[in-house]
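Homework help board

Subject: predicted structure for assignment chain

Our instructor gave us this sequence and asked us to write out the predicted structure in token form, then describe one feature. I got the tokens but I'm not sure how to describe them. Can anyone check?
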Amino acid sequence: MQNIVIIGNGIAGVTVARHIRKNSNDRIIIISAETDHFFSRTALMYVYMGHMKFEHIKPYEDWFWKKNRIELVRGYVSEIRPKEKELLIEDARIIKFNKLVLATGSKPNKFGWPGQDLFGVQGLYSKQDLDLLEVNAPNKEVCKRAVIVGGGLIGIELAEMLRSRNIAVTFLVREQNFWDGVLPEGEAKMINEHILDHHIDLRLATNLVEIIGSENGRVKAVKTDKGDIIDCDFVGLTAGVTPNITFLNNSGLDLGKGIKVNKYLETNLEDIYAIGDCAEQLEPEENRRAVEAVWYTGRMMGETLAQTLCGNKTAYKPGNWFNSAKFLDIEYQTYGWVNSLRNRKEYELHFHWRHLTEKICITLAYHHSTKKFLGINTFGIRMRHKVFDRWLNEERDLEYVVSHLRDANFDPEFYRQYEPEIIAKFNSELNAQISLKKKQWNRIF
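My token output:
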């Protein structure tokens, strides 16, 4: 019987543990310093907003772990000793392993801003971050204004959380539009409008220069590259995350941005593996990033690695890219690849439709010469993952996808009220392209 030790009790670590247990009687130990039990990280915001209690975001009852013979150890791992196949916990405990799985997740980025370690300045990733937020921004009396730095998904979640308690929020985004490194321009501008509609002071193309502290070491203001001084009681640093791997610097592991792994999620050290946010693919699949800090990829890596650890060596194959999120009350889904203007491929064209009055839009990406469907973004219209996954695998063309969008819609009745307008715009753009080609052809002959 093997002794399998997993560092990290997030979605990646817990998934590999569950799937090992389904297929073997090996001893499983999960080590985490964050919480005793696994919880849904994406639901932390709803605890702060009062929609749920913390115990409601634990997917499994506390008795689940003992029943399934998954041992839980609370503590920080300070050192890995690969040759001895043992871990050192900060309180001097030593844990032996036959196989080690690193699922250590991410940590919020800090870029050396003056004042970034003042009281009242924090990120939002862990349960400890949530607890600290209750201290730093419990209500609008203690926190009259908050400043959020960084225009990603965590930033907009934090803005929604603070606004739920009527705390004034200023949102500093360095890009020309919100998340325009990811979203095409039309979508990014729509989200700009939506943020402003929610009484959030959105400041685009604005960088943080300094966080200014008071005499008692607490934040009192920020300074921007526009020369503005913004008084505040709290600063949320949400400028992305990086793999949580600092404690591995002298371990002998091959480290880059994350822990480097091959397609079987193996590190350069025998019997040591890495999965989830902390893993960096040496040979990522086409268009995929080497590090993907996404909930579903962590789950998929956990399922894959469990097969290998149980004797069925399996390569990690993430398949077609997909993701989902919420921008305040607008649902967002993406399938395949719809690149921003900054990252768009030379062969990539977009068809974009936006409702005239509602915050609803669709963007379809396609190949300019073959018309092959490349991907779709939807805002405010919920779609079916399996349908788009099939169309991407079947390499359907743009016209087929547009004419069958109703089949992919989660609520066909809801979609029908927009379908005629979407089809009309698509046909209009198609006819314009045909007309342009005819004119170009006539000039040649």
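Reply (TA_rk): Your tokens look well-formed. For the description, you could write something like this. The radius of gyration is 24 Å. That's the kind of observation they're looking for.
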